[in-house]
Amino acid sequence: MTAAQAHDQPVSTALARPGARLLVPALVFVALVVAAVASLGTPLITSVATTFHVSLDSAQWTLTIALLSGAVATPVLGRLGAGPHRRATILVTLAIVVAGSALTVLPLPFAWLLVGRAAQGVGLGLTALMMGVARDHLPEERSAATIALISVVSVIGAGVGYPLAALLAELGGLRAAYGLGLVVTAIAFVTAWRSMPAAPEGRSARVNVGGALALAGGLLLVLFLAGGRSLWSRHLAVAVALAVAAVLLLCFWTLSELRTRTPLVDVRAVRHPAVAGANIAMFVGGIGMYLLLTLITRYAQTPHSAGYGFGLTTFVAGLVLVPFSVLGFVAGKLTPRVRTRIDGPLLLAGSAAVVGGGFVLFATARSNLAELLTAMGVLGFGVGSFSAAVPGVILAVTPKSETSSAMSFNYVVRSVGYSLGSAVGGLVLAAGTATGHLFPDEDAYTTAALVGVAAMAITTTAALALARRRSPGTDPVTAPAEEIEKRHA
Question: How far apart are CA 440 and CA 65, in angstroms?
Answer without folding.
Answer: 27
